[in-house]
Specification:
The protein is built from six helices and five strands, in the order αβαβαβαβαβα. By secondary structure, the protein is of the alpha/beta class. It has a five-stranded parallel beta sheet, sandwiched between helices. The radius of gyration is 16 Å and the shape is globular.
Amino acid sequence: MILSDIIMESKKIAVLVGSLRKESFSRKVAKTIITLSPDTLVLEIIDLSRLQMFNQDLEESPPTEWTEFRNKLKTFDGVLFVTPEYNRSVPAVLKNAIDVGSRPSGQSIWNGKPCAVVSNSPGLLGGFGANHHLRQSFVSLNIPTMQQPEEYLGGVAKIFNEEGICTNETVLANLRFFTNSFADWVSKHTLEKR
């Protein structure tokens, strides 16, 4: 395989959505990103709703859902986190997924896996607190996180029509640029791992 083939090879991206609500803005943002992504990325939303809360006592005989989640995430080349902001922080379901994936000690599924964060909020700050709170965890887990461009979607309730389709051309352009940049980020970091 030559270098250009490696670069053009599609990369599998796990999309972790920080809201369990069926019609959540985060899920709509994730679906929009999937439609805008370049051919070099294959994105899949991973269901976090069945993931039992992390408890170290269960690690001796981990719940099936933990094992399935860990094994599934190992097959992806990168991760996209799409999150709302709850009380200036990360939703529990997303933090739990991070904690479950980081164990058992020394076997973290996150180690070296490139990622990016998109946060959103009906308010003007666009989930800034959640975005940066996530990044704090990523430092200790050795997750190479795309620094630029950043993506904070403020006023997210106004960018979708009744069918859940993003109709804001500026937002679509920004998300397309973000997603293309993420494709480059993933390609760069997966090449470094080879």
